[in-house]
Write the structure tokens for this entry.
Amino acid sequence: MVVGVRRTGLSVKNCTAAGFFTLNSFPCASRIVHHPKDIQPTRHNCGKNWSQHGPSVFLTFPQDYYGKTLKTRSDLKSNACLAPAQPIPAFVLKALKKIHPEVTSKYYGCGLVVPECLEGCKLLDLGSGSGRDCYMLSQLVGEKGHVTGIDMTEDQLEVARKYVDHHTQEFGYEKPNVDFVQGYIEALKEAGLQENSFDIIISNCVVNLSPDKRKVLSDAYRVLKDGGELYFSDVYSSRKLSDEIKNHKVLWGECLGGALWWGDLVRLAQEVGFSPPRLVTANVITVDNMELEAILGDYQFVSATYRLFKVPKISNKASLVIYNGNITGFGESLEFDAQYTFKVDEVVEVDGEVASILSHSRFAEEFTFQPPGVPAGCGVKKPKVCANTRTIAPNVS
Ligand SMILES: C[S@@+](CC[C@H](N)C(=O)[O-])C[C@H]1O[C@@H](n2cnc3c(N)ncnc32)[C@H](O)[C@@H]1O
């Protein structure tokens, strides 16, 4: 029996974002540190000496916006922080249903941050807010895993911490596997988070609020273990934003004014050491507020989820991979990103970048890897599919 090798093409679902991510590519400027005029820090923060200046130079505006101005989701002035996520899998819905309504009412995320293969993992949530995602992931990592949420806003942390015992009981755990830390996502060391200590970092609609995205990414890289992953949803603009938009307080608070042009994320991520970002999903944001739309003009925004890995630089060697189907909740197929979906037992040719990610991360155990042209069965690991005698035809598409 001859099995063809599947090569996949890019497909971005739920939006016209495929155009968004290609038509607007143009060379980017060298720096991206946006300080809205009316919320200027007292000293210019170039990202190099964050720890020296400390919180005194931080923006206080998001703290007031998420701590005082907004009481619940219904107070938001646009739908940027309510952007529809992709359909929610049943096991995630089940986990969400167990979360206390007060926590859920203060959820301001713009995507679904549920990476696969979570059992026993140590997670960090950047800008955890009232803790909805932490409590959802607390169930998915299981009692042996752990989730830490970090946020700068005391009012949000208060709600999150209030329900630690409630959820521990609700999930049937002997002791909590969640904790919440007050701190800045640009200063993880100062918040007491150790280098090389997390398997996965998630974040939901927060990085756009930071005036120093490079520092957020470099700190995340530092606290991730080798092979670790930053999996995060955020708002991106179709091109670099004008000063008028960046300086508008409400647009900043609504997660639009601080949005990165997506091309700058790709550049910054690699500059701090990550693998090139892999786009998972993207949804166009319809702002639905005429006053804000008038200021935004023809800028477009998407809520997008990217996955960035801390893995060795790519080898550029394509590889044949077979998914073994053993990841909980993904018994039939694994939708890795917008480009690659791996069906169980199917041979897929991946590019060198993805081969490096899969073979140097927690996914290494879940795949069999073979150089192109090598007959199945001679792979590095023996997949379930080896029970059949298969021959791989590398050039069949
Ligand atoms: C749009 S809300 C999202 C909250 C949460 N991720 C959720 O999905 O509900 C943004 C959160 O990020 C926090 N935040 C913004 N900038 C931050 C920073 N520089 N350091 C720490 N937290 C920050 C705010 O306090 C707020 O709780």
Summary: Residues 9-19, 22-58, 379-397 have pLDDT under 50 and may be disordered. Residues 62-63, 66, 81, 107-109, 127-129, 132-133, 151-153, 156, 184-186, 204-206, 209-210, 255 surround S-adenosylmethionine (CB under 6 Å).
